[in-house]
Amino acid sequence: MRLKEIYYPIKRELKEVESTIETSLSETKHDSILKVNRFLLEAPGKRLRPALVILSAKAASGHKSTRAQEHKGTREKPQSTSHQLINIAAAIELIHTASLIHDDVIDHASLRHNRPSVNSKWGQDMSIAFGDYLYSKAFELIATCGNTDVLKCISQAASLMCEGELLQVCERENISLLKERYLLIIKNKTAGLFAASCQAGAMLSNSPKDIHGALKDYGLNIGIAFQITDDCMDLFGKKEDLGKTPGADFKMGELTLPVLNLLSQIKDKRRLLALVKQSDKQGAFKEIKQAAMNSEALVKTKEEVGGYIRKAKNGLNKLDDSDFKDSLFSLADDIVERVADINAHS
User: Cα separation of 28 and 23, whole Å?
Assistant: First the structure.
């Protein structure tokens, strides 16, 4: 992802978010916990969700960035960012990180960001407790905001995220899984937090409620597209690009959209279903990957990603033009480019 360029209008704010996360995780007096916290901070990830919080807040309020002034050599001060906004952005990142740590326990994942997962380094007991710890730190930050509407927005998203994860586990090895059920799972598990990131940012901008709704819809749609793209990468991607071993979904018996699309199109469904049931065999995974690559399933999945991205971008039409709005458009385009490049991994 071209994040450095996309994040340019909010680079100062993201540094503040990083500082807030570091401060929050350094408050403990226990060296054993600080050791895990430091390990976590060494691989910060994309920081996509806090970026969405800040970009949405600034795009909703119609701020212009200082890029033009910088190019002109002026010394005009950048728009100030509220302490509340930074804390909410940091809190949402901590919620997301906690969910990843718990995901790695559930999926028995040994890698995250091309390095050992917390689970593989310290075990599942520590990982579960650490994920809970991060959730608690997140809601401490949210409490400083003093805005019950924002609290409700994020709390509901966190609840749905957990429900989506639980539903995904319940539906494992369900070879009759419907596409509608799959979409419900990823809306809850992934897209809901994207939507809450954008909505919460807009709420803190004092913009009209229709703008809050437009940005919530934008977040939901790019969240769905993002997760479908991730599912495609898990099937077609390479370890060095993913930062983890591909085929994790297949190994855990989870049917994702490219496989569901393959099931709807392939003639020899019995053969494919037999392969799906062999989730513990690498040969079965490779055969499904090749079958999907050689079918229209990948094309259809890319088209569906494009559809969600168009919906997301259409929702931004209510916003005034700004560099922040441009960055939201660019984030959407970047997801499309990521899924469009999948053929390069064949």
Answer: 10
Q: How far is CA 3 from the centre of its chain?
A: 14
- Give CA–CA dist 191/197, Å, rounded: 10
Q: Which CATH number fits domain 3-345: 3.40.50.720, 1.10.3720.10, 1.10.1040.10, 1.10.600.10?
A: 1.10.600.10
Radius of gyration of the chain (CA): 20
Task: Please give the C-alpha separations between residue 292 and each of 73, 177, 211, 250, in angstroms, as whole numbers.
Answer: 53, 17, 40, 13
Cα separation, 144 vs 83, in Å, equals: 9
The closest of 148, 158, 343, 175 to 264, measured between CA atoms, is 175
Q: Is the pTM for the entire model greater than 0.85?
A: yes
Determine the Cα–Cα distance for residues 107 and 172; give it in Å rounded to an integer. Answer: 11
The full set of domain ranges for the chain reads: 3-345
Instruction: Give the residue ranges of DSSP H helices in the chain.
Output: 3-6, 11-25, 31-41, 48-60, 67-72, 83-107, 118-122, 124-143, 148-170, 179-186, 192-203, 209-236, 239-242, 248-251, 257-265, 269-276, 282-293, 297-314, 323-340
Q: Return averaged pLDDT per consecutive 10 residues of the chain, 346 residues in all.
A: 89 97 96 96 93 97 56 44 92 97 93 91 96 97 94 97 96 89 97 98 94 98 97 89 85 92 88 84 90 90 96 95 96 92 62
Residue 11: CB atoms within 10 A of its CB come to: 10
